[in-house]
Write a structure and sequence with these properties.
Helices cover 62% and strands 1% of the residues. The chain is mostly helical. Strands 1-2 form a two-stranded antiparallel ribbon. A hairpin with a 2-residue loop joins strand 1 and strand 2.
């Protein structure tokens, strides 16, 4: 079958085979049931892939259930290995390099074990089932949490490139979000989930208070929020190196949005009563930028990029960024009403507090392992964090927040080394009723914000990576 062969014709042939095989005298009786199961499984997979291309997500669940049942039957009755005289081994030739003409040496394909093939197929079905559940959830914060869990706690056989591409297409494609919403939906979610502010109130607050000489850059702010929020969620289904590169590039856009809001605030009339919406929005944008910096630092551990001499700096930098992140969270939680969003931010604050304590402890433990000179460490610092030294930042009056300072790192190292020489390293690690107690309390914190099966595993989503 070629790519141009109609899917409907393929399904027609499979339907005909599913009807004929159970009653055919040409098929051995011992093979009729097994062959029927394989035909139904293949038909379900073809229909599932066809529904995925047309984005008919409502068809997923019955097809996935059928495929799972057939897969169980197939795995329960494996076929005997073919004989040497059988034409079955010639259906796929692993020595394909002897056929095409190529100047590049090609290695023969090593076929995996059959059990691994079935495990991969089961993982594919699980991933598509998760997509069918998520597509019915309009809240982008849930997609963000599930995508973060996929990055830091990947399940086996659920990171296939085909599935990751399907998730990215479902999130945003051709100007449509989640296959049914306009781009305005991203701004709605951003404001409601983080600030509990309706979109109309946000627009009204800007328009009634604007006193600037030029037009209000509202469209630019909305477009930037949409691009950054959708891009961040899609990046959760990138491969780790690509996601790290995207996070580095998006940092400048987050800072540009933060600088724009700072400039807009200078041309707004003072708030007569209540909380300033722009001030709260600036805190959320800054929080997102600091969160992205943390992801970049943590991805270096995930990809094993740091040498022994670079790890103390990474732990120290992560702790500094988390300190600023916690400050932003405190400002946001203070003005939020009692709601699920407030509960979510409180969980993040507890989680980041434990992660910061863990980072400081690891910095104190690993600082003595540095064997390079300060000049060598400074050069490694400039190379590893080159995204923080872009000349484009000089175009803004607002300095970028969350960037590392090598001089501050050297001072922190001196303090730690002096404490170690005075036998004070243990109190540094086990201060404030022990780090272990913090993490235990974090695990006991019940997260009611997610009710679709991901709340139990998110509590430990990054601590293991460090």
């Amino acid at each position: 079958m070629s790519e141009a062969y109609p899917v409907s014709r393929i399904l027609g042939v499979l339907d005909e085979a599913c009807v004929r095989v159970p009653n055919s005298s040409r098929v051995w009786s011992t093979w009729r049931t097994g062959l029927s199961h394989r035909l139904v499984l293949r038909k379900a997979l073809v229909e599932l892939f066809s529904a995925l291309l047309s984005k008919d997500y409502f068809r997923f669940r019955p097809l996935i259930e059928t495929a799972r049942v057939m897969l169980q039957h197939v795995r329960a009755s494996p076929p005997p290995p073919p004989r040497s005289c059988s034409p079955a081994p010639r259906a796929f030739d692993p020595q394909f390099p002897r056929v095409p003409v190529s100047a590049i040496p090609l290695q023969p394909i090593q076929l995996p074990e059959q059990s691994k093939v079935w495990d991969t197929l089961a993982g594919l079905l699980d991933s598509l089932e998760q997509l069918s559940v998520l597509i019915e959830i309009p809240d982008l914060s849930t997609w963000d949490v599930v995508g973060t869990l996929r990055i830091w706690q990947p399940h086996p056989n659920q990171s296939l490139a085909y599935v990751r591409s399907a998730f990215q297409s479902a999130i945003y494609e051709n100007g449509i979000i989640l296959n049914k919403y306009l781009q305005k939906h991203a701004v709605d979610c951003f404001l409601m989930e983080a600030l509990q502010i309706p979109y109309d109130s946000f627009i009204s607050s800007f328009q009634t208070r604007w006193v600037g000489p030029d037009s209000l850059p509202l469209r630019h702010i909305e477009r930037t929020i949409t691009e950054l929020l959708v891009g961040r969620i899609k990046s959760h289904w990138y491969n780790p190196p690509r996601r790290r590169r995207y996070c580095m590039k998006s940092l400048f856009d987050w800072h540009e949005l933060y600088a724009t809001l700072t400039d807009v605030q200078k041309h707004l009339a003072p708030v007569q009563s209540g909380t300033d919406v722009v001030t709260r929005l600036r805190s959320v944008v800054l929080m997102r930028r600091l969160e992205t910096i943390s992801d970049i630092v943590l991805s270096g551990f995930q990809l094993s990029l740091y040498s022994v001499n670079e790890r103390p700096l990474a732990y120290w930098y992560l702790a500094r960024v988390l300190e600023q992140h916690l400050t932003c969270l405190d400002e946001i939680i203070e003005v939020l009403p009692n709601s699920m969003s407030r509960f979510e931010f409180q969980f993040r604050a507890r989680y980041l507090t434990a992660l910061q304590a863990l980072s400081l402890a690891l910095f104190a433990v690993t600082v003595k392992t540095m064997g390079s000179s300060w000049e060598r460490l400074r050069l490694n610092f400039l190379r590893r964090y080159k995204w923080a030294f872009m000349h484009e930042y000089e175009d803004f009056d607002v300095p970028p927040a969350g960037h590392a300072n090598f001089l501050a790192f050297t001072m922190s190292c001196s303090v730690i080394l002096q404490a170690c020489s005075a036998d004070q390293a243990v109190p540094i690690i086990y201060q404030n009723d022990s780090l272990r107690g913090r993490i235990r309390r974090l695990a006991e914190w019940q997260d009611h914000g997610l009710q679709i099966g991901w709340s139990s595993c998110r509590k430990w989503r990054r601590c293991v990576e460090i």
